[in-house]
Automatic annotation (TrEMBL), chain A:
GO CC, one annotated term: plasma membrane
InterPro entries assigned to the protein according to its UniProt record, in alphabetical order: BP-dependent_transpt_permease, MetI-like, MetI-like_sf, OppC_N
Protein name (Swiss-Prot/TrEMBL): Peptide/nickel transport system permease protein
One GO BP: transmembrane transport
Compartments where found: Cell membrane
Family that this chain belongs to: Belongs to the binding-protein-dependent transport system permease family.
TrEMBL record, chain B:
GO cellular component: plasma membrane
InterPro entries to which the protein is assigned, alphabetical: BPD_transp_1_N (IPR045621), MetI-like (IPR000515), MetI-like_sf (IPR035906)
Location within or outside the cell: Cell membrane
Family annotation (SUPFAM superfamilies): MetI-like
UniProt superkingdom: Bacteria
UniProt record similarity statement: Belongs to the binding-protein-dependent transport system permease family.
Protein name from the UniProt record: ABC transporter permease
Organism: Saccharopolyspora elongata
Record keywords, A-Z: Cell membrane, Membrane, Transmembrane, Transmembrane helix, Transport
Automatic annotation (TrEMBL), chain D:
Taxonomic lineage: Bacteria, Bacillati, Actinomycetota, Actinomycetes, Pseudonocardiales
Coiled coil (residue ranges): none
GO cellular component, one term: plasma membrane
Membrane topology: Peripheral membrane protein
Assigned protein family: Belongs to the ABC transporter superfamily.
The protein, known as: Oligopeptide/dipeptide ABC transporter, ATP-binding protein, C-terminal domain-containing protein
SUPFAM superfamilies cross-referenced by the UniProt entry: P-loop containing nucleoside triphosphate hydrolases
Pfam family, one: ABC_tran
GO BP, sorted A to Z: peptide transport
Residues annotated as domain ABC transporter: 4-255
Location(s), subcellular: Cell membrane
Superkingdom as given in the UniProt entry: Bacteria
Alphabetical keyword list: ATP-binding, Cell membrane, Membrane, Nucleotide-binding, Transport
UniProtKB/TrEMBL annotation, chain E:
Upper taxonomic lineage: Bacteria, Bacillati, Actinomycetota, Actinomycetes, Pseudonocardiales
Domain ABC transporter, residue spans: 5-254
PANTHER family membership: D,D-DIPEPTIDE TRANSPORT ATP-BINDING PROTEIN DDPF-RELATED, TRANSPORT ATP-BINDING PROTEIN
One of the record's GO molecular function terms: ATP hydrolysis activity
Pfam families: ABC_tran, oligo_HPY
Family: Belongs to the ABC transporter superfamily.
UniProt KW keywords: ATP-binding, Nucleotide-binding, Transport
Cross-referenced Gene3D superfamilies: P-loop containing nucleotide triphosphate hydrolases
Annotated InterPro entries: AAA+_ATPase, ABC_transp_ATP-bind, ABC_transporter-like_ATP-bd, ABC_transporter-like_CS, Oligopep_ABC_C, P-loop_NTPase
SMART domains xref list: AAA
Protein name: Oligopeptide transport system ATP-binding protein
Amino acid sequence: MSTGEGGTELTDTTQRWTRHVVAETTADDLGPPQSPRQRFWRRFRRQRPAVLALLFLLLLTAIAAFAPLLAPADPDDQNLRNVLAAPGADGYLLGTDQFGRDMLSRMLVASRISLLAAVEAVGVAVVLGVPLGLVGAYLGGRFDRWVVRLADAFMSFPPLILAVAIVAARGPGLTNAMFAVGLVTAPRLLRLVRSSVLSVREETYIEAARSIGTPAGRIIRRHVLPNVLSPLLVQLSLVAAFAMLAEATLSFLGLGVVPPQASWGSMLQEGARFVSLAPHLVVLPGVAIALTVLAFNVLGDGLRDSLGREIRSGR
Amino acid sequence: MLQLVVRRLAAMVPLLFLVSLIVFGLVLLVPGDPAITIAGENATQAQIEATRERLGLNDSLLEQYWRWASHAVQGDLGTSMFSNRSVSGAIAERFPATVSLTAVAIVMALLISVPAAVAAATSRGRWLDRFATVGTSVGVAMPNFWLGLLLATALALNLRLLPATGYVPLDDDPVAWLAHLLLPGFTLGLAAAAELTRQLRSSLIDVFDQDYLRTARAKGLRTTSVIAKHALKNAATPVVTVLGMRISVLLGGTVVVEQIFGIPGLGQLAITAVLQRDLPMVQGVVVVTAVMVMLANLAVDLSYGYLNPKVRAQ
Amino acid sequence: NTEATGSASGGAGSTFRFAYSVGPSRYDPHRASSSFDNASLFPVYDRLVHLTTAAEPVPGLATGWQYTDGGKRLVFELRPGVRFHDGTPFDAAAAKANLDRARTLQGSTVASELKAVERVDVLGPMTVSLALTAPDSSLIGVFSDRAGMMVSPAAFDDPQLDLRPVGAGPYQIVSYSPNDRVVLRRFPGYWDPAAQRVETMAIVIQPDTTTRMNALRAGEVDAALLAGNQVAEARQYDLGVVGDVTLAFYHLQLNRTRAEFGDIRVRRALNHAIDRDAIIHGVLFGNGKPAAQPFPPGYYAHDPDLPDPYSYDPPKARQLLAEAGLAGGFEFEAIVPNTDPGTAVAVQEQLADIGVRMKIREVSSGEAADLFYGRQQGDAMVAPWGGRADPIQTLGLLYTSKGFSNPGGHTAPELEQLIGQARRTIDPAARTELLHQIDRMVLDQALDVPVVFADTNYGHAARVTDLRSWLSNKPEFRGVGAAGTGR
Amino acid sequence: MSVLQVSDLDVRFATDRGWVTVVEGVSFAVEAGSTLGLVGESGSGKTVTSLAMLGLLPPRTSRVPRGSIRLDGTELVGMPQKRLADIRGNDIAMIFQEPMSSLNPAFTIGDQIAETVRRHRKVSRKAAMERAVAALDQVGIPNAASRARSYPHEFSGGMRQRAMIAMAICCEPKVLVADEPTTALDVTIQAQMLDLLRQMRDELGMGMVFITHDLGVVADICDRVVVMYAGQVVAADDVDHLFSHPPHPYAEGLLAAMPQVGGAEWLATIPGQAPTPGAVPDGCRFHPRCPYAADRCAAGAPELRLFDRHRATRCVRSDELLLRGPA
Amino acid sequence: MTALLEVEDLSVSFPLQRGLFRRGARLRAVDGVSFEVAAGEILGLVGESGSGKSTTGRALMRLVEPDSGAVRLRGTELTALGGRELRRHRRHIQMVFQDPYSSLDPSMVVAESVGEPLEVHEGLRGKVRDERVRDLLVRVGLSPRHLERYPYEFSGGQRQRLAIARALAVDPDVVICDEAVSALDVSTQNQIINLLEELRAELGTSYLFISHDLSVVRQLAQRVAVMYLGRLVEEGPSQRLYAHPAHPYTEALLSAVPVPNPGVQRRRERIVLPGDPPDPTDPPGGCTFHPRCPYAMDVCRSVVPEPTPVDGGGTVRCHLHTSGPVLAGGSVLELRAAESGAATDTGS
Ligand SMILES: Nc1ncnc2c1ncn2[C@@H]1O[C@H](COP(=O)(O)OP(=O)(O)OP(=O)(O)O)[C@@H](O)[C@H]1O
Ligand SMILES: Nc1ncnc2c1ncn2[C@@H]1O[C@H](COP(=O)(O)OP(=O)(O)OP(=O)(O)O)[C@@H](O)[C@H]1O
Ligand SMILES: [Mg+2]
Ligand SMILES: [Mg+2]
C-alpha cells in the first residue's frame, strides 16, 4: 500500500486505523457457492403449498403419460345398458357416464387432452408473445409501437368472446380452440414480457453492459432474457391455468374437443345434462379442473415468491 | 382532466381501426359459405347464388370491409344473415342485460374482495389470511360455469331462494332485476372477487410498508382511519388496473353465465350467432364488446387521476 | 302418454309460457328457413291445411280441397269470415296473393316446394285454384307447413314483418325479441275459439336443455321441451310429461358415392351393426323407438307389416363386410352437429365393434347441412332428419338422384320411378300403398342407416292441460289450457 | 429535567432464525430544548430505537421484553396502542428520512397536516386547516394558504421535508424524533433544514432526538451524542467532548473516517463489517474490528460505564486508552 | 499534462412529453459543458441533485446522445462514431455506477460479469478469461476464489469493487465513476476511495469522479468542476477551488457542508441559500443561479455569464468577475470579508 507520502502527514489516529487490518470476507466465508437455481430450490422447498402443487402436477403429467396403461378399462367402451352408474357400483370405482363408459378410465385419459390443451395454448402464446415482446421492448421504435398497438387491439376483445368467434370461424376442435386461447393470451404475455423488459432495461446492469460495448443482441440474450425469465415463468403457470379453464369453457359451449376424445371440460359439458341424475359426471371433472388450475396458480405464486428479486442487502 | 379524456379518446382511434380490421378478418377465417345456410334447407343452387349476390359476398374484400366499416362508424353494424334484423338493434336490445350482469358482478366482486383483502392484509400470516389466500386460489380455479350449475341447482332449484333463469329489466322491477342477477352475478364475479382480493391484499401489504403509512401512524391516527383513508386509496391503483383487465374477462364470461341462467344478453347472442353462423352478428357483438372494454379502460385510466393526483397533473 | 288432458278455464289473465330450444329464424313464414320455426309461427299464422297430432291433413283455413284435371289442378274452398290481425279480410284474393308471394318472393325458402304450381287463379270469393305443371300429391302436406301460412297482404311489404308478424292465427304478437322471447295475446276474432284457451302465451327461447329444465322446475315457465334424460327427472319433481315419437329420426346418413358405401353389403352390415335398443335405453333413456323405415310407426307412410330385416347382429355385419372384401374394416368421416352428438358417439362405438372406424367431425348445427349436402364434404352424417310435412318430400330429398339431401345422388332407378309415381298419385289410399312399397325398397337397398325415432318430450306444470305431442315434431299449442297464472 | 428518558431498552424481532435481539440495553435521556444525536453505522439500531419511542414497532413481529421509555414521566412501554396513539403526534412526533415517500401522495399537504390537528385537538375542520396553514407558514413555506392545497408531488424535496416538520410540530410536541431528516437532501437544502429544526426546537422548547450518519451534522446541531454499535449504546457524551476525546474506540474510528479539511490523501477506514443481529461476536461486540483490542475484550461483555450523568462508554480499556478526535 | 479527454460545449436535452399540445419542449439537462481530463488525472464533478452530472457522464459514454458538442478521447472524436466503431472505442472509456446493488446482473456469476468486457472486446472465453478475471479480483482487493459467486453474495463495498474490476478489465484510458461511493457507509466509502487512488497511481488511469459530496471529491480529485442546473459554473484545481471559491454557488456549497468539528462548525459563518434549485424544465434566464444568489445584480438576470479565468487556475462563469464589484478572478470570499466588515447581515 502506498501511504500518503506525497501528501500531508497522516495523523496518529488515521495511521492507527489504516494500519489495522482485518481479514476481508473471502470466498470461503461465504459458504459453498449457490447458483440461482440452487437458491431457488432452497426457497421453493420451503413453500409447502407450492411443492404440493408441483408434485400434483408432476403426478398428473405422469398419469397423463401413462393413462392408457393405468386405465382399468377401455375408456371408449360403452355399456349402454349400464349408464350413469354411481361411483362404486358394479365395480366401477368412479361409476359410469351417460354411455356406460368407465368414468375412472375416462378421467385418466381426459387428463391427457386437458394438459395437452394447456400446453398447446401456452405454446402458441409463447411463440407469438415472447419474441415480439422481448425484442420490441428492448429496441423500441416504430416496430414496437405497432406491436403494442396490435396487442392492445387484441386485448380489447373479451378473451372468451374472441375465442368463441375464432372457433366459430375456424370450426370447433381442440386445435382451433387452443389456437384461439393462445391467440387471446399472447398479447397479455407480450405485455408482461414487455413490461419486465422495460423495467430490466432500466436496470443499471444493462446500462453497464451497454457501456462496456456489448452488442444489443448479446445484451438481450445474456442480460435481458435471463432476468425476465422468472416473471415469465410465473406468468406461464398462470397462462396454463387460464388455458385449462378456457378449454373447459369452450368445450362446455360445445366448441372444444371432438368426441370420442374427451377432456375434462368436454366431460363436464356432456355431464352437465345429467347433473341431477348423476352428479358425479359433473363433480369429478369439475374437481379435477379446479384442482389442476389451483395447482398451476399455487405453483405460480410459489415461483413468484421463490424467484423474487434479491432483497437489497449485502448478505 | 378534460385534456386527458380527449387524449385518451384520440388514442382509441387507431386502436378501433385495428379492432375493426381484426373483426373483419374473422370473415376470412370462415371456411364455409354462409349463403348456403341462409338460403335455407331446400335451397337450389340458383337461390344460393342469388343470396350471395344479395349479401354482397361476391364483392372484393376491400369493398366489403369499406362497406362494413363505414356503416359501423355510423352505428350500423349490418343486418343479421339469419334473422334479417339490424345487428345494432339486436345488440342494443341485449345490451342492458349484459351491462347489468357485469355491473352486478363487479359490485359483488368489490363487496367481497375489499373486506376480505383488508382482513387478510391486516392479519397477515395468521389463519384468517391463510383462509383468505386459500379461498381466493379456489375462487380463481373454479370454472365459473361449473359453479353456476351447482349454485343454480342448490340455491334456485332446491332451496328456491332465488330465480333460476331469466332477466327482468331494471325499470320494470328493480327488486326482481336484482333477484335475477344475484346468482349469475355471483357466479360471474367470484373469480374476479378472488383475483381482486389477491391483488388488493398484496397491494395493501405493499402500502402498509410505505413510509407514509408510518407517518400516518406517527401522527397518532387510529388504525381504522389509517387503513380506510390512507391505505385503501393508495392500494386502489393496482386494484383498479386489475379490475380494468378483469372487465374484459367478465364480459367474456357472460357467454357462459348467460347461457346457464337464461339471460338474454350479448353473450347468449354471441353464442346463438356462432351456432347459426350469423357472421354480421358475431362481428357486431365482438366489436361492441371490444368498445365496451376500451371504454372501461378509459374509465380506469381516468380513475387513476382521482386515486393518484400525480397522474392528474400530467 | 301422448296427451295431457283435463279442462281449464281460459279466463282473462291465464298465461302459458313455453320454453323452446330455438327461436324463429325470421317471422316471415315464406322466408323462414328452419323447421324449428314453426312452433313460433303457428300461433301467429294460420294456414290452409292443418295436421292432426298424427300428422294427417285436416281442414284449416281451407275448409276443403280437391284435385281435378287428373291431378293437374288443385282447388281450395276457403273458410269464410276470417280476418287477419290487422283487420284485413281473408279471401281468395288474399290467398292468391300469399301463394304467389310464396312462389316468387326473392329469398323465398318455400318456392322449391311449390315448383309444381304454375299459376294461381281466383275462382270465386272463397275459392282458389292452383294450376299445376304435373300432379303433385305432396302439396296438401306442403300447405300444412310454412308454404301454406297466410300473411296479411297489407303487411307484405312491411320491412318490420320479421319482428311484427301479422297473420290470421289464434294469437297476435305483443312483443318479440329474437332469440329471447315471443309474447302473444289472444286474437279476439279467431274462427276457432277452442284453440285459444289461454289469454297470453309466451315462447321463451333457452338453447340449453338444463337451463330449460331449471326454468321449468323453478316455475319460470309452464312447459318446456325436454331431453330424453330429463323425463324421469321431470316426473320426479311432479311435473307432467307428454311425449311420443315424431317424424324426426336419427340416422347415419351415407353419401353412397363415397367411402365403401356404394356396396350394398357394406350398407347392410352397418345396419346390422347398430344396437338400436341399446341406444334407446342408454342414450334416450327409453324415450324412443328403433328406426328401420324412414317413417315412424303410427304415421300413414309407415308400413306396419314390413318386418325389420336388420336385427342387431354384429357377426352377420362382420360377415357381410368380409364378403365385401373389407374384413379389416374401413374408416370414414362423419359430420356431426355439435348440439347433440350422443347418438353419434354411440354409433361410433358400435361400428368400432365390427372394425369400422367412424371419425367424428363436429360442426355447428347450422353448418352441418351446408357441409354435407351443399359442399358434399364428409362421407356420412349422423344427425336427426327433421321430417317433412309430406312423406313424398322426405323421400324425394333423401333418396332421389336430384334430392338436395342426397349428396352424391346415388339412387335406384326403380325407386326413383316409384317416388315419382307416388307424387302423381292423388288418391290417398293408393298413395299410401305406393309409399309402403317405397319403404320396402329403401329398406331392401339399405339406402340409409336409420337409428332411432327419438321421442319429443314436453314437460309441463300440473296446471297446464291439453298440451299434446305432435307427430310432425312441430308443436302447436291449439287448445292448451293453463289454470291460474303461474308464478 | 429530562423530557424523555429511555432506560435499558431491549427490542427483539421475529426473523427466520427465531427471535433476535436487535437493540439491547439502550439508555439515554433527552432534555427539553436540546438535541441528542444518535449516530452509528447502518443497521446499528437507530431507527428501531426511535420507532420504539413512538410505539411504532410492528406489533406481531417485534417485542420489547425489557426497559422503559418515559415521556415527561409517563411510561410508554406496555401502554395500550389506543393510548399510545393519543400521545403520538401530540406529545411526541417524528420525521423521517425520505420526504418523498413519507407524505401520502393521494392527499393534499394541508389535508394531511389538518388531519393531525383534528386527531388531537377538538377543533372544526376549518380551524384545523387554519392551523395547518399557520404551521406551513411557520416552517417557511411561502404562500402557505395556497400551497396547503398542493399535493406532495408538487413540492420539491426541501419543501416536503418542511411540510413534514410542519406536520410534526403542529400539535407542539414535547419531543421531536428526527430520523436522518437531511440524508436525502442536497447540502444546501440540508443547511436550511438544520437551521429550521434548530429554530423550531428553540421556539417550542422541544427535546429533539436527531439520528444521522453524518458527524458534520452532529457537530452542527447536537448538544449531546449517543453512539450505537450493533444494537448497543457504546458511547455517550456531549458533543464537544466526544469530538475531542472520543470515549470509545468505535467513536474514534467514526471520527477518523470523516474526510478532514486539508486531510490526508489516505483515508481512515474501520476495517471489516458490522455484525448482523443474531450473529454478534462474544465479548465486546466491536473487538474484532478494534485496533485496540486486547484479549480480555473477547472475554466478557462489557457494561456501559457511566462517568457522569452525560458521559458513558462500553469499553473496558477506556481508562488506559488515550483516544483522540479531530477537534 | 496534455488532455486525454476533451469535452467541448456538450449539450444534452430530453424531450418533455406533457399534454397534447405542448409537445416539443425539451429539458436541457446539460448545457454547453466543456472540460478536459489529463492522463492520470482525477477530475471531480460536483453539483446538487439534478444538476446534470450523470447526464454528462452518460453523454461521454454515448449512453445518451448529445445534442451538440464534441467529446474527444486521445483526439478521436467519439461523438462522430457509430455502431460497431463506437462499440470498439467503448473499451477506452468505462464506467462505474452509483448503485452497487443493481449494476451487476443478478443472474451472472462474477466470472461472467467481470469478464464480459474481455469476451466482447478481446474474445476471451473459458479458462483464459477466468484467469484474467482472477487477476482483476486480486487487483481490487477481492479473493480470486470469488469467481463462481453471484452478486447477491457480496456486500455493497465488495460489489463496488467488482464493478471497478469490470471497468478496468480492458485497460481503459478513462473511468467515469458516477456517485460510485454515495450508497456506501463512510468507512466503506473510504475503502473504495483508497482503492481508486491506489489504482490511479498504479495504472495511470484517468477518472471523472462524479459526486454530490464535496468532501469526498476533495479527497480524490486534483481538479474539480462544479455544475449547477446543467451548466458548469466553476472549474479549477481542487486546492484553489476549496480554499478560494470564485463562484457564489461554490462558496455556498462549501459553506453548507457541515464541518465535523463542533467548535468550528458552530463558530463558522454559513451561507444558507434561500429557496430550492429551480425547475430544470423552466430555468431562469441569464445566470441560472441568480434567484438564489446573495450577490445577484441586474445583469445576472438577463445575460448568461461567459467563462473567465480565475487566479490560481481554472475558470468561473459569474458576472461578479466582469462587472459589478469586479472580482476579476479572485475568490468570492473576499467579497464576503469586505461586506461583513460593513454590515454583518448576509448569512441566513
Ligand atoms: N421489522 C424488522 N424485522 C426484523 N429485523 C429488523 C426489522 N427492522 C429492523 N431490523 C433489523 O434491526 C437492525 C437495526 O435496524 P435499524 O433500521 O434500526 O438500523 P439503523 O441504525 O436505523 O440503520 P440505517 O442507518 O441504515 O437507517 C438491522 O439489522 C435490521 O436488519
Ligand atoms: N432519461 C431522462 N429523461 C428525461 N429527463 C432526464 C433523464 N435523465 C435525466 N433527466 C433530467 O435531467 C436532469 C439532470 O439529471 P442528472 O441525472 O444528470 O442529474 P445528476 O446531477 O446526476 O443528479 P443526481 O445527483 O440526482 O444523480 C434532471 O432534471 C433529470 O430529471
Ligand atoms: Mg435507520
Ligand atoms: Mg446522478
